[in-house]
């Protein structure tokens, strides 16, 4: 089998296609959540905290120098706060989706009733042997 046909067989497996669809949908969902956090959730939080824009919060380690044309060195912890909020929203959404899917799935079949224990089986065999 040639590499091209092996590659085609690999790509046509259901799991690879399902994974590709999941990645595309996940990317789109991530953009929606980013917009939700940046444009809807964070402005009221910034307003409540006195007009603070979290995405601009940073700890400047070394300021920019125009004379030497060096860039600013800073830790942007506000962007990190936004990212953590996005992560929590995505986690909550996935939790709710999985919970809804679990409700729709039929319950697993009940396990079969337990049979006799090993001791009971051995006692039955011994009783049969004594009869003979």
**Helix content estimate:** 55-70%
Q: Hey, roughly how much beta strand do the residues contain? A: 5-15%
Structural class category: mainly alpha
Individual helix count:
4
H-E string: HHEEHH
The overall pLDDT average reads 84
Strand order of the largest sheet: 1-2
What gap, in angstroms, lies between the N and C termini?
A: 64 Å
How many strands in all?
2
Largest sheet: 2 strands, antiparallel
In short:
The chain has 4 helices and 2 strands, in the order H-H-E-E-H-H.
Describe the structure.
- With 132 residues, this protein is mainly α.
- It is 65% helix and 5% strand.
- The chain contains four helices and two strands; from the N terminus they run H-H-E-E-H-H.
- The chain has helices at residues 3-11, 14-48, 77-104, 118-131; strands spanning 59-62, 73-75.
- A two-stranded antiparallel ribbon has the order 1-2.
List keywords for this structure.
two-stranded antiparallel sheet, mainly alpha, 5% strand
SSE blueprint and pairings:
Layout: H1 3-11, H2 14-48, E1 59-62, E2 73-75, H3 77-104, H4 118-131
Antiparallel strand pairs: 1-2
């Amino acid at each position: 089998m040639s590499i091209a046909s092996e590659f085609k067989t690999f790509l046509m497996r259901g799991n690879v296609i399902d994974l590709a669809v999941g990645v595309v949908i996940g990317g789109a969902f991530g953009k929606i959540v980013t917009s939700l956090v940046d444009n809807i959730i964070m402005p009221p939080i910034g307003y409540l905290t006195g007009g603070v824009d979290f995405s601009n919060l940073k700890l400047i380690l070394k300021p920019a120098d125009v004379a030497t044309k060096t860039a600013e060195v800073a830790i942007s912890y506000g962007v990190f706060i936004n990212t953590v909020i996005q992560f929590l929203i995505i986690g909550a959404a996935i939790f709710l989706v999985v919970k809804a899917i679990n409700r729709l799935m039929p319950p697993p079949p009940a396990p079969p009733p337990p049979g006799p224990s090993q001791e009971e089986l051995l006692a039955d065999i011994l009783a049969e042997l004594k009869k003979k």
